[in-house]
Specification:
single chain, 549 residues, mainly alpha, globular
């Protein structure tokens, strides 16, 4: 037996704390911003913003670009996708000023909105040695704009890597100076997480506070951003209340006391991946997946014996409810819950899309649980896999391919379903599925490895790299961070190539952003920190005051 092998008789416990969210409190909550009560004003403000966009086309490119950027960051761009794309397309044939701030903003917004632009637009800012000219550092807004643009680079764009190195160095040094409050806050936020990688729902709330201090703000746009946020938040809360009733009826808290009770966190993940209001059914399906999969994760990682886990994996592989009879009593509620919520989703897709999605869902559930089974065998035998072995399996057990499949079918309609888009989702080796999962796996391991090793889970990316390369923990972490940056660039390339249908590129991008947010300040699903609690409160329970400041 290997030194790290586990004794078969052991039942482990991870010591997870109970949820801080009382389902009865959630069920009784209300924000007072239901759409029916505010629909007329929302529509008036949308029309006013369209008029503002149209009138701004006749101003300077920088003014128009700044307005489009504000619309994006305020979280209301989904109302104006056609108008924004038209305005940016028209700018392709316009003379753009030569200042760094405008060119970098133009570059970022074009790529962000799926339009083609070469990174060679930055060549004019290089010196004879191919470095960015040193005098640019005096233009702080320009350097910050360059910094943000650099994160939309793709593999092989050396100029954007140089742009990132140059801008990061000078943006950091600027914090030593006395700056305006707005610019100082934006710099600190950008250094923590660049704008393109931030979760739009979280960024919108933060930016509303910044924008209302902007002397050049549009009061109508600001009102729309606040009201739209509050109305959508109210919809999210109604979905969460419905899920809280379902979760309470499931009574998993009593059935699985060793596991994490993380309904609210699971719903946050589904909302982050699929944020638009019209996808309510999809969000609820994804939330059910996430909370049931969290229990399943703890059964495999913490509580189950190896022979029990083999039976559970076989039962899911055969996909037959009768297989529940072969499972230990404690596993049965979880197995039944998987079948019941998948049945709901399959029936919805049959009615909405006129197709049977069960083969796709089943395939990904089987891949997911077989990945868990492989990890369990490693843990019980004490085997430390190679780094590549671990990652190949780890992109399955993070659950992103399974959740992405849910999101894909949950956001499709009869008009955009095609053999072309199905090819991307049905292959387990799809680059689209792999990159979203890889980013999630690496963020997860980067932040949770210490806690996992303390409770006996020695198989993670950090540990595997340290053993394989005889590296220090610091070297392993630096390597993981490099892989994350590389994965983001590859995801950018995939999106920019337009080979990925937009519905899939949106899911992949938001999934990656969601993982980044959830694990930036600790383990989202295990440790309910004050920062995490504040995020939940502001996201679902606390509307933005409508009065102007």
């Amino acid at each position: 037996m290997e030194p790290n092998a586990m004794q078969v008789s052991e039942r482990r416990t991870a010591g997870f704390l109970p949820t801080v969210w009382d389902p009865d409190l959630i069920i009784s909550s209300s924000t007072g911003y239901k759409y029916e009560s505010h629909a007329t004003r929302v529509e008036q403000l949308k029309q006013a913003t369209k008029t503002l966009l149209e009138s701004t086309k006749d101003t300077t490119p920088h003014v128009l670009l700044s307005l489009i950027d504000a619309i994006h960051r305020l979280g209301v761009a989904y109302h104006f996708e056609e108008e924004i794309k038209e305005a940016l397309t028209n700018l392709l044939n316009s003379m753009i000023p030569n200042d760094l701030s405008t060119i970098a903003l133009h570059f970022r917004l074009l790529r962000q909105n799926g339009l083609t632009i070469s990174s060679e637009v930055f060549n004019k800012f290089l010196d004879q040695d191919g470095k960015f000219m040193d005098n640019l550092r005096e233009d702080l807004k320009g350097v910050l704009s360059l910094y943000e643009a650099s994160y939309l680079g793709i593999p092989g764009e050396d100029i954007l890597e140089e742009a990132n190195n140059f801008s990061t160095r000078h943006v950091k040094s600027s914090l030593m100076k006395k700056l305006e409050r707005n610019i100082s806050e934006q710099i600190q936020l950008s250094l923590e997480v660049p704008g393109y990688q931030r979760l739009p729902w979280i960024d919108a709330r933060n930016f509303i506070n910044v924008y209302q201090r902007d002397k050049s703000k549009s009061l109508l746009l600001l009102e729309l951003a606040k009201l739209d946020y509050n109305v959508v938040q109210s919809l999210h809360l109604e979905e969460l209340k419905e899920l809280a009733k379902w979760w309470k009826d499931m009574n998993f808290k009593e059935k699985y006391p060793f596991s994490r009770d993380r309904l609210v966190e699971g719903y946050f993940y589904s909302m982050g991946c699929v944020p638009h209001p019209q996808f309510s059914t999809c969000r609820k399906s994804m939330a059910k997946l996430t909370v049931v999969a969290t229990v399943l994760d703890d059964i495999y990682d913490v509580y189950g014996h190896l022979d029990e886990l083999e039976k559970l994996t076989d039962a899911i592989s055969c996909w037959d409810l009768k297989a529940v009879e072969n499972l230990p009593e404690y596993m049965r509620p979880c197995y039944i819950a998987i079948h019941e919520h998948v049945k709901e989703m399959v029936e919805d897709a049959s009615e909405r899309l006129g197709m049977d999605i069960l083969p796709y869902i089943k395939q990904n559930w089987v891949i997911y649980t077989r990945g868990y089974m492989e990890e369990s065998r490693w843990i019980y035998s004490g085997y430390i896999p190679t780094f590549d072995e671990y990652l190949e399996n780890g992109v399955r057990t993070i659950g992103a391919p399974l959740a992405t499949t849910y999101a894909f079918f949950g956001t499709l309609d009869r008009d955009n379903i095609s053999k072309y888009s199905l090819e991307w989702i049905q292959s387990p080796d799809s680059e689209f599925l792999y990159l979203a999962a890889l980013i999630g796996r690496l963020y997860d391991d980067l932040l949770t490895s210490e806690d996992e090793m303390e409770r006996g889970e020695v198989v993670n990316a950090i540990k595997c790299y340290m053993v394989q390369e005889r590296a220090s923990e610091e070297e392993a972490r630096d390597h993981i961070k490099g892989l994350i940056s590389d994965a983001w660039r590859k995801l950018n390339r995939l999106i920019a190539s337009k080979s990925l249908p937009k519905c899939l590129s949106d899911i992949a991008l938001n999934t990656a952003r969601c993982w980044q947010h959830m694990y930036k300040k600790g383990d989202w699903f295990s440790v309910q920190s004050e920062a995490h609690k504040d995020t939940i409160i502001s996201s679902f329970l606390e509307p933005i005051p409508m009065e102007q400041k």
